[in-house]
Amino acid sequence: MKNDIAYTLVSEEEIDSTVTRIAAEIDRDYPDRSKGLLLLCILKGSVVFMGDLMKKIERPVEIDFMKVSSYGSGTSSSGKINIMLDLHRADMANLDVIVVEDIIDSGRTLSYLVDYLKLTGARSVKTCTMLDKPDRRVVNFEPDYVGKIIPDEFVVGYGLDYDEKYRTLPFIGVLKKEVYSH
Ligand code: PRP
Q1: Does any domain span residue 53?
Q2: DSSP symbol at 157
Q3: Max CA-CA distance within the chain?
Q4: What is the predicted pLDDT for the residue at 73?
Q5: Per-residue pLDDT tens over the stretch 85-115
Q6: Ramachandran region, residue 140 (left: φ > 0; alpha: ψ -120 to 50; beta: rest)
Q7: To test ligand 1's pocket by mutation, which of 104, 127, 155, 164 has the most ligand atoms within 8 angstroms of CB?
Q8: Per the domain annotation, does 132 fall within a domain?
Q9: CATH number of the domain that 144 lies in?
């Protein structure tokens, strides 16, 4: 797998310090530990970031999962959002929600999800992403917590895939063009 990586964009050490920083920001912003806070992981790519982040947040949190699809096949966004796994909870009015994503590209997924989650009656909805590619934005969207702003390169690892491969790499790397351009 590593032979397909052109270079490391975010090392394991930088990932660790980035996740530590975001967890501290969340602890700072949600000081009332008696109020329910839900970390909502958007499958599948965010699962590694979610696992690291939840361990570093000191206040109590609940976790839950949704799965949506925004990409068609290959490397470009289709623009259509499908909910593949929905959230079924009766206690949304008692929850502040933080949506946890691995990457924001066009912004369509999180823009759609924030509107969707507000309709569930959640007390508040914020967003958190490990990576942000603002150069690729199609809709106007700014996340509340950002790990790292990156250039428009094809990145894999730390949950991110190409054709379902490379998710298990512990660092974030740029995929060699020859791997996806044939
Ligand atoms: C990726 C990522 C976001 C979305 C971002 O998921 O995890 O959910 O695309 O793109 P956008 O800003 O253009 O909407 P993907 O559909 O690749 O699914 P996966 O996490 O299961 O790999």
Answers
A1: yes
A2: B
A3: 54
A4: 41
A5: 999 999 999 999 999 999 999 999 999 999 9
A6: beta
A7: 104
A8: yes
A9: 3.40.50.2020
The number of distinct structural domains making up the chain is 1
36 lies in some domain: yes
Sheet holding 124-132, edge to edge: 77-85, 62-71, 36-43, 95-104, 124-132, 145-149
State which of 65, 76, 102 you would mutate to test the pocket of ligand 1, scoring each by most atoms of that ligand within 8 A of its C-beta: 102
Q: Where are the alpha helices (DSSP H) in 57-139?
A: 108-119
Tens digits of per-residue pLDDT, 10-22? 999 999 999 999 9
Q: Which of 126, 127, 128, 130 is nearest to 160 (CA)?
A: 130
Tokens for 12, please give them.
């394991």
Q: Which range of residues forms the domain containing residue 20?
A: 12-156
